[in-house]
Predict the structure of RecBCD enzyme subunit RecD.
Amino acid sequence: MQLMTSLRGWHEQGWIRALDLSFAEYLYEKLGAKAEATAVLGALVSHQLAQGHPCLDLKQLQIAPDVTLQLPPEHASASSLHACISPQQLLSELGDESFSQLAQSRAVNQPNSPLVLHANQRLYLRRYWNYEQQIIADLGTRMAQDAPIHTRELCATLDTLFGKNEAISWQRLACAMAVKSGFTVITGGPGTGKTYTVVRLLATLQQHRDETEPLRIKLAAPTGKAAKRMEDSINEELKQLPAEYRDNLTANQAVTLHRLLGTQARSRAFRHNASNPLLADVVIIDEASMVDIEMMAAVTAALPVSAKLILLGDKDQLASVEAGAVLGQLCNEAEQGHYAPDMAQWLNATQGDRVVLDDALIDPQGASQWPYLQHTVMLRESRRFKADEGIGKLATEINRQQTAWLGEWIQQSEAMALADPKMANIELLNTQSSASGALKQLVQQGYAPLQKLLHDGPQAFNDVTEWGDALLHQLEQFQLLTAVRLGDWGMRRINELATLWLHGDRVTSDQWFIGRPVMVTHNDYSLDLRNGDIGLVVQLDPTDPPRVLFRGHKQGSLRWLLPSRLTHVETAFAMTIHKSQGSEFTHTVVVVPEYDAPILTKELLYTGITRARERLTLVAANPKLVLQATQRRIHRGGGLT
Ligand SMILES: Nc1ncnc2c1ncn2[C@@H]1O[C@H](COP(=O)(O)OP(=O)(O)OP(=O)(O)O)[C@@H](O)[C@H]1O
């Protein structure tokens, strides 16, 4: 009982969830005292899910238990450190024999057993093992499809759509690859032309289609906001296509993945599944880095084998909050290409043999060791940010974990901006307190245009819709992002301060005051609101009650909901970087806390910084932490590759 007692101590101190402990109690009850170690390892598998890992890596657990389990948690108090045994102590109590006995347990690798042990190394909850197997099997089938292609004709179409460049065009390569394969990943940073490529890909597919009727295209993204952005940018890009290619491509609506698959009341299962597949020829998923393993398994199950699956996303961004860094795993090493020689030869042929893939990108072992990379193209040139200018430079250096230039910028960001106008769109605000005058001024200036629109009211516009549209547009112009939720530099505190600075002490940050931006924190199917949707509390006229303004699902439509109908929202002057994924803001302010924490990683900083469209302010009490965070990477477990 010693191990179970230790586990209960962890739960009492908030180190693990009630769910994790309950699972251990269940296993302990079923298996008996002799299998106590298995019960405890079961709880750790469950705990790992909450950290975003679909399995527990037993080798890593033995090498570095605290790093692997991310315990003690960020905010563990001194008393909880005293009350609990450390992960290292738990490991000693478990002993080596616990690991060797695991495979013999009734709870492991039996038909329908709750746990699955893979290669004596990765321990899964069966459900997550099944998800992973579903994805591996499905992608394997899709990757084996090889559409018959007339390379010369394809080349001619690509010449029209992408031009006859002498330089290598990764966009063109991505398009060629997706025409050939049943599964393609197009990864790239902000503004590298993922949408540009996908629209030309759709045109190419339509052009080379044997059937006469238009392609059935489904566009989807993990959040409502990302779906809206995808829809807008795809429809905008469609207008740029030569007329003869546009004819058969209808304007498309993008939906959330939940909507694509059809949620059902009180069920995890979707309406579309293997026995009721989606009617589609091509399914394109944007912001795929946010898709977790459960959702990816559901998508692959619901997609007919004949349909193409295309994932778009930035592999370097934070992975989904839920378990499983699917895109990150699939595109790991995409920089290096690893194209098998015959794949490289075919890709070259589609370029009219003008440019050849660099030898460094060709790998004789590519097909066997990097199967997913034979279906992946990384777009490398951003049209939005130059890699040596301002936001682009900062994002690139952090993403590559290079600290030399970063260290210099931290020391003298102002001087660098003065000396070189290309660096003027990034600034560092080094302030010792989150309640400082400098941050207050930044927030008041940033939100002044929104305050003015609210003050002017709908009477200053032609109609209420125009006003509502202007408000929601303005809400995207300035945004505070925090690395953490709690503490002086956390999302909660910054929201309290912003409320005080903008609305005085008449209101508190969780009240329904006019001008309060809110983020929906849970999917609400009855209201058709999704986790991550952003609204603004407004009042149409003094006789009308306050309403929360959201964008509607139809292009240009707005919704004006009564606050009482919204049950899960939080104030969104500041949001966490995690929650900001899939969004962009003209001026983004990234707030880094004054203490180090495992959550501060290069992926977090990169994701926060690349939310900025035109201007970025990095607020840091201790800028050296930015260097430390840059050197820390997220390692997500999983067995997809
Ligand atoms: N090859 C190209 N020639 C001309 N313009 C291009 C090309 N590629 C991209 N663009 C333009 O660059 C801009 C950014 O491209 P796009 O929106 O496709 O990038 P993205 O990777 O989808 O960006 P995001 O990070 O927002 O998802 C767009 O205005 C697009 O029209």
Observations:
- Residues 1-124 form a domain with the Arc Repressor Mutant, subunit A fold (CATH 1.10.10.1020).
- The radius of gyration is 26 Å.
- The chain has 26 helices and 19 strands.
